[in-house]
From TrEMBL:
Low complexity composition-biased segments: 482-500
Name assigned to this protein: Transmembrane protein
Record keywords, A-Z: Membrane, Transmembrane, Transmembrane helix
Transmembrane segments: 7-28, 89-108, 120-139, 145-162, 169-186, 192-211, 218-235, 271-291, 303-320, 326-344, 356-376, 396-418, 430-450
Lineage start: Bacteria, Pseudomonadati, Pseudomonadota, Gammaproteobacteria, Chromatiales
Region (Disordered): 478-500
Length: 500
């Protein structure tokens, strides 16, 4: 059986809400960059200075302050403050931008494949959202309190505007300019550069109806983008010209103009590995869509746009030294758009193993997390398992949270229902993967206090570098102090490692 358009859209809507809300609030920072961003938000909220973000008493001008500005505004919302603490209210900014990303990704996917609906593409907007929810990059970074959540929202909005231009110069220009402005205020030039290069190169792929329409759309987009590009830099310059120069030249132009170089083969292989991991499984379906629908490249402007922005984006990532893996989040959207065209034509040989992998993987996760929850709920203590005690603090105190329990139960029921109702080799069986991802996040939300305590016991999670997948824990301050106070007799043996 294949889910109809309306039912799939409703199911996607439910899964998206659960995904956005799960683990968004109610826990301590799980990654180092979250600590840094929340500190900037707290400093801005305490000082009331909305122009110069501060961290540890120093100006934090690595990026424009859109994310902390949004978070501060949410912190000051009285109705929101009644339900969540001030520190958690700041995290709602990430949920807001994640929701915007999913909405415009759905619109972009639907607009891309709309001309091919008669050829059995299906509800491409919903499938784009589901693919995006299931990518590992979105799973890893999607809920983080970081400026990149605003970057991916702006980039997705800008891409939708570019594709909208042939039908409406005004609305296309509005969404393109606003998206580029949001991307700029989120992370600087990276997002607008990718959107701009894509917009300039689009006519060479015959993506737009005419050169005049292109010029009018770009001009209108620049007008809508102008406030985003001009207001905050002008306010910063009026506040302190030296800070403005530091931001413009030191943190914005110089890293990209003077540090553009193709990396070593080892670094490029690391970036390739990062791309394959972050974009899984969307990168599998994107080329498959072009193979299964060979006429899509020539007949659908949205397909050409998604291909173009993917090539441009990954090329910029390779040559721009400041680019980090988290910046590649915005490039997951075009891959998900392309992959949506392959879902309904997936070969049986691919559907069946993916369905079984999803069943086994998320089934084990569900049994483990529900089993742990049940033991805590009814025994009130840790199971006497040596391997488990090595990771869970012995003094962990369990607290029953009915709301999180109901959400986790709903997500689990939906996943089981999908497994039983949509069976391989029907392509709808692929729903088991995104539904399993959402269920996992809902179950993690059920164990948020436990995750907080585990992280507190083992140290703050470090930032993952290019090509690194596993969580790496920093050494605690006590361990560092103990190492620094080691006897002089052993200093000669440890000198070389310590210097490194």
């Amino acid at each position: 059986m294949r889910p109809q358009g309306g039912s799939l859209v409703l199911l996607t809507f439910i899964l998206a809400i659960v995904f956005v809300g799960s683990t968004l609030v109610g826990h301590a920072p799980w990654k180092l960059h979250e600590v840094q961003n929340l500190e900037i938000v707290q400093s801005m909220a305490d000082s009331g200075d909305l122009v110069v973000p501060m961290q540890a008493g120093q100006p934090a001008l690595d990026t424009p302050p859109l994310y902390p500005l949004t978070a501060v505004e949410l912190v000051t919302v009285e109705r929101l403050a009644q339900y969540v603490p001030q520190t958690d209210a700041a995290r709602v900014a990430s949920g807001l931008y994640l929701a915007i990303t999913l909405v415009f990704a759905g619109l972009l996917g639907r607009l891309t494949w709309q001309p091919a609906v008669s050829k059995g593409v299906g509800p491409a907007g919903a499938m784009t959202v589901l693919l995006l929810l299931g990518t590992l990059g979105m799973v890893w970074f999607g809920h983080d309190a970081i400026a990149d959540s605003a970057l991916i929202a702006g980039a997705t909005m800008g891409l939708y505007g570019l594709l909208r231009l042939p039908k409406s110069v005004f609305w296309g220009g509005l969404w393109f300019g606003t998206g580029a402005g949001i991307a700029f205020m989120a992370k600087g030039l990276l997002g607008p550069a990718i959107l701009g290069i894509t917009a300039v190169a689009m006519p060479f792929l015959a993506t737009w109806g005419g050169l005049g329409r292109q010029i009018r759309g770009l001009i209108l987009g620049l007008l809508f983008a102008a406030p985003w590009f001009l207001v905050w830099p002008w306010l910063l310059h009026e506040r302190d010209p030296q800070l403005f120069d530091q931001w413009l030249w030191g943190n914005t132009l110089d890293p990209y103009l003077n540090n553009l170089a193709l990396g070593t083969p080892e670094e490029n292989l690391e970036w390739l590995w990062t791309a394959l991991v972050m974009a899984f499984p969307a990168w599998l379906l994107a080329p498959l869509a072009l193979l299964l629908r060979p006429g899509a490249f020539f007949g659908l402007p949205g397909v050409r746009l998604a291909l173009l922005v993917s090539v441009v984006g990954w090329a910029v990532m390779l040559v721009a030294e400041p680019a980090q893996p988290v910046d590649a989040l915005m490039l997951l959207v075009p891959l998900a758009v392309l992959g949506a065209g392959a879902v309904t034509r997936m070969p049986d040989l691919l559907v069946m193993p993916m369905k079984w992998v999803s069943t086994l993987l998320f089934g084990l996760v569900a049994v483990a997390l529900w089993g742990l929850w049940g033991y805590f709920r009814f025994q009130g203590q840790l199971p006497e398992i040596e391997q488990l005690a090595a990771y869970i603090p012995a003094d962990y105190g369990y607290a029953f949270q009915p709301g999180l329990y109901l959400v986790a139960a709903l997500a689990t029921v939906i996943w089981i229902w999908i497994l039983m109702r949509f069976r391989s080799p029907n392509p709808s069986a692929l729903l088991a993967w995104p539904a399993g991802v959402v269920m996992t996040w809902a179950l993690l939300a059920l164990h948020q206090p436990l995750v907080d305590q585990v992280i507190a016991e083992r140290g703050m999670i470090e930032e993952p570098g290019v090509g690194e997948l596993a969580l790496r824990f920093e050494k605690s301050a006590e361990a560092a102090d103990a190492q620094s106070s080691a006897p002089e007799a052993t200093s000669s043996e440890a000198a070389a490692p310590a210097a490194e």
